Amino acid sequence: MSVIVVLIGASLLVATGFLIAYLWAVKSGQYDDKYTPSVRILFDEEKKSEVRNKKSENMNRK
C-alpha cells in the first residue's frame, strides 16, 4: 500500500514539474509565432468582394 502512495506522490511531482515548465515556456515567449506573419504577405488571398461576386454569379446561373 505504501508503494501506491509513493507512486502517486512521484506522479504529482512530475506533473507539477511539467506544468511549471509549460508556464515558463509560455511566459518566455517560446510559443510566439514570428515566422507566419512575415510569410503571410506572400500568399494570394481573394478579396471578400470578389468572393461575393463569384457567389452571386453562381446563384444567377441556377
What can you see in these coordinates?
By secondary structure, this protein is an all-alpha fold. The protein has one domain. It is built from three helices and no strands. The protein is elongated and about 75 Å long.
Highlighted features:
single chain; 62 residues; mainly alpha; 3 helices; 73% helix
Summarize the structure.
The chain contains three helices and no strands.
Query: pLDDT below 50 for ≥5 consecutive residues: which ranges?
Result: none
Number of domains: 1
Give the DSSP E fraction (strand runs of 2 or more residues).
under 5%
Largest sheet: none
Percent helix: over 70%
Question: What's the structural blueprint in terms of helices and strands?
Answer:
Blueprint: H1 2-27, H2 36-40, H3 48-61
